[in-house]
Specification:
This protein is α+β, with helices and mostly antiparallel strands. It folds into 4 domains: 261 residues, 3-Layer(aba) Sandwich (Rossmann fold); 114 residues, 60s Ribosomal Protein L30, Chain: A, CATH 3.30.1330; 160 residues, 2-Layer Sandwich (60s Ribosomal Protein L30, Chain: A); 112 residues, 60s Ribosomal Protein L30, Chain: A (2-Layer Sandwich), CATH 3.30.1330. It is built from 16 helices and 28 strands. Helix 3 packs across helix 4 and helix 5 runs antiparallel to helix 6. The protein is elongated. This is Diphthine--ammonia ligase.
């Protein structure tokens, strides 16, 4: 059941802001007021990075048509901060280069003034409707303003990341009478001004096929003004308009329509806005439906061979660096008698901060953290501390509960950071974070102050995903549906953060995955679902699924990607979820020119190298697989280990070399004390001290990529 929210609608007058309000109403939310930002008096159009100003002449009529109060503020600021980030990565202006000093005069702060005015008049308002489809620039700034202390408006962005062709068709089907009020080249002409979406539908699809133009105008191809929609109690009739040339006159120039006269008329029929009149997307997209295992596989059960409690290994802090990368392991809190859990968690992050500082890094440089708690009861306390440590674009994160020695510490952290000594500040290092905090149909907003994904140095870390309904942020009930939905979230996040790369025709690829489970009964279904991610497409499938058909990477098969299935003790996952998917990926930034050659389908042209092997290490048999980039040391791999009574005469040179690799982040999962004892003994016999940052993780069960049970696993990432 969706919580009923009191919504203020950010209104540009165009199709997107009006249609998003339709979705708010269809989901049962109460629209209280509308708010808009207008250009200074005497100006029709501003080249604003943030706001649509053309068509502001009729904004008051839209509010009257909806019978809602309208709040308006003049745009006074400029787009001073034109980056993808708005604000500081550390709270309270602690960033190495604080950007907050420029915020007072940025055009984004005009939105704060506007929403503050609305809150004063309507203190019951607790949500804001945002019509963003693809614009991270707009979404980031609206969320930054809406979620400030004292404002606390939940962003509702139900058009976010929607397929534009589907969205346009839905708008037409919902009788959205939106007309083109501005055109800016890309095959659109002066004569297209004033035409409705239905009249323009075929042409917009054609321009998309010919030139890659955005069907919904997300590339600035056109803007609209809405004359009627299901929320309108009356409709707008235009009496007088004139076409204006913006800039120099040319056949492919920029033209906009100025509305000089309009009035309202009663509608002959009023349509109730509901889920039956507005298209609500299905929870699972076409790809998830197609890749779902045909059988639920509930009848298959797997008995865990080891049910004995595992010994607690003393974790030691270790740091290793390779170029700009820094891997850290073994960070713990101080479990002092009398201290509450927040104090202990805070002490762990103080230790992490000190370790980073000793290497010339800070929290701003963190790309990803793995946090292990002794119990998920501490999850809320973790988030309370966490949100005081990070500002905008925080690192991605995965958090699970494992068998820690609570008397020693209730929290264990490993992390990796990326820095460049030549950079003036951490914020000047190229980095892309996807931190979506609003509700949508797309994927779940994070239930903690961390990013869904961070891309830096060519690597993409994707936060652990559980099966939350993105509309309500509640777990879906069926554990198998949770498994599918969590993986769908991870796939959509990967696609969204790759958006710029896909424009440049760079594919990106998944280099490894971990599937955390709270019950071994989930294993057969999860394994089959993962294997189905690389199934062949049937001839009947839509062209729109082209990216999804090869989302793992054009040359990759899910069965070959390093994958580990891990079972935890009961309540090992946040919200007592059934499954959490954690993926690591590469953006393809380092691809060579040959890799972009569409005529060369060889493995070399893909830029990927899949390496597999078998060996022995101590008393363990070892099978390993890793994916790396050609001409690069960067790789992700997993070694699957099983214990035996036979002592190896020669240790695995692969494992030995791995553990001596600078910049390697290593997690050693184990279910068997004998295995981990042998590994630690073998490590002590290496001719050179290990250079890898090793974290020891005791778990209930481990399974390789084919779902065969194993005793231990080594998961490594190198820079």
């Amino acid at each position: 059941m969706t919580e009923r929210l009191n919504v203020v609608g950010l209104l540009s007058g165009g199709k997107d802001s009006c249609y998003n309000l339709c979705h708010c109403a269809a989901l049962g939310h109460n629209i209280v007021a509308l708010a808009t930002l207008a250009p200074p008096e005497g100006k029709d159009e501003l080249d604003s990075y943030m706001y649509q100003t053309v068509g502001h002449d009729a904004i008051h009529l839209i509010a009257q048509a909806m019978d809602l109060p309208l709040y308006r503020t003049t745009i006074k600021g400029k787009a001073l901060n034109q980056t993808s980030t708005y604000g500081d990565r550390l709270p309270n202006g602690k960033s190495s280069t604080a950007s907050s000093s420029t915020l007072d005069h940025d055009e984004t702060e005009d939105l704060f003034t506007l929403l503050k005015q609305v809150k004063q008049a309507h203190p019951e308002v607790n949500a804001v409707s945002v019509g963003a489809i693809l614009s991270n620039y707009q979404r980031v700034r609206v969320e930054h303003v809406a979620l400030r202390t004292g404002m606390e408006l939940l962003p509702l962005s139900f058009l976010w990341q929607r397929d534009q062709a589907e969205l346009l068709d839905e708008m037409c089907a919902a009788d959205m009478q939106s007309i083109l009020i501005k055109v800016a080249g890309a095959g659109l002409e002066r004569e297209d001004l004033g035409k409705t979406l239905k009249q323009m539908r075929n042409k917009l699809h054609k321009l998309n096929r010919l030139y890659g133009a955005h069907i919904c105008g997300e590339g600035g191809e056109y803007e609209t003004s809405t004359l009627d929609c299901p929320l309108f109690k009356r409709k707008i009739i235009l009496d007088k308009t004139i076409a204006v040339t913006h800039g120099e006159e040319s056949s492919d120039g920029v033209f906009y329509m100025k509305i000089e006269g309009a009035h309202l008329e009663d509608k002959t029929e009023q349509v109730e806005v509901s889920a039956s009149t507005i298209t609500i997307p299905d929870r699972f997209d076409k790809y998830s439906v197609r890749s779902r295992p045909q059988e639920r596989l509930e009848s298959i059960s797997t008995e865990l061979s080891n049910k004995q409690p595992l010994k607690h290994i003393r974790q030691e802090t270790f740091v290793t660096k390779n170029g700009p990368w820094c891997a850290i392991s073994g960070i713990q809190g101080s479990a002092v008698e009398g201290n509450d859990i927040q104090t202990e968690i805070r002490s762990a992050f103080q230790s992490l901060e000190g370790t980073l500082r000793s290497q010339g890094f800070s929290f701003e440089h963190l790309a990803h953290l793995n946090v292990y708690l002794s119990n998920q009861r501490h999850f809320a306390a973790l988030n309370m501390v966490y949100k005081t440590l990070f500002g905008v674009d925080p690192p991605s994160r995965a958090c699970v509960a494992i068998n820690l020695d609570g008397e020693q510490s209730n929290i264990l952290i490993d992390a990796y950071a990326y820095g460049n000594r030549l950079a003036k500040s951490a914020q000047s290092i190229p980095r892309k974070a996807l931190h979506v905090q609003g509700r949508s149909y797309w994927a779940a907003a994070n239930i903690g102050p961390y990013s869904q994904a961070v891309e830096i140095g060519g690597r993409i870390s994707i936060a652990g995903q559980i099966g939350l309904d993105p509309i309500t942020l509640q777990l879906v009930q069926d554990p198998f549906d949770q498994t599918i939905l969590a993986l769908q979230h991870a796939r959509r996040i990967f696609k969204a953060i790759l958006e710029d790369h896909r424009v440049l025709k760079k594919q990106g690829w998944i280099e490894g995955s971990i599937c955390w489970m709270n019950d071994v009964k989930q294993l057969p279904f999860a394994r089959q679902l993962w294997h189905n991610q690389s199934q062949e497409t049937s001839d009947d499938d839509d062209e729109g699924d082209a990216w999804e058909d090869s989302w793992l990477g054009s040359e990759l098969n899910a069965k070959d990607i390093p994958t580990l299935f891990v079972t935890l003790a009961e309540d090992g996952l946040p919200r007592n979820a059934s499954v959490e998917w954690q993926l690591s990926a590469q953006s393809g930034d380092q691809d060579t020119d040959e890799a972009d050659d569409d005529d060369d389908d060889s493995e070399e042209s893909s830029g990927l190298r899949l390496t597999q092997g078998a060996d022995r290490f101590g008393t363990c048999s070892v099978e390993w697989t890793c994916i790396s980039k050609n001409h690069s040391a960067s790789q992700f791999g997993i070694a699957y280990l099983n214990n035996s009574d036979e002592q190896s005469k020669t240790d695995s040179t692969t494992i030995a070399a791995l553990l001596q690799t600078h910049g390697a982040s290593v997690r050693l999962f184990y279910t068997n004390d004998a295995v981990v004892d042998q590994l630690r003994e073998s490590l002590g016999q290496l001719p050179v001290e290990p250079n890898a940052a090793i974290t020891y993780i005791p778990v209930s069960g481990l399974f390789d990529r084919n779902a065969s049970q194993i005793d231990a696993a080594i998961v490594w990432q190198t820079a």
